[in-house]
Amino acid sequence: MAVDERDASHGGEDSPPVTxxxxxxxxxxxxxxxxxxxxxxxxxxxxxxxxxxxxxxxTALAEVVANHNAGYALGFxxxxxxxxxxxxxxxxxxxxxxxxxxxxxxxxx
Length: 109
Known about the structure:
The protein is mainly alpha-helical.
């Protein structure tokens, strides 16, 4: 029995079939994964300089960030949301530019 190239490259007949991701699924992965990595680095650098407890003193977040880990987690999710928005905006601009070019509406500067 012959095995086609796709099955041979992914473990043979017992492996599940290879399926392509939809454009939306790829776009979500393209935005979320790099933004996650960037948020991790941003969090490390930011909290190497600033203490989350000191930042929260005298604010409504004082009780929440009284625990350092909670402050680090809030900071990480803030950075992740911010970089996700930046990545999503970049992806949107790239996609809309390609659509404008295809429709012939782009003018050269």
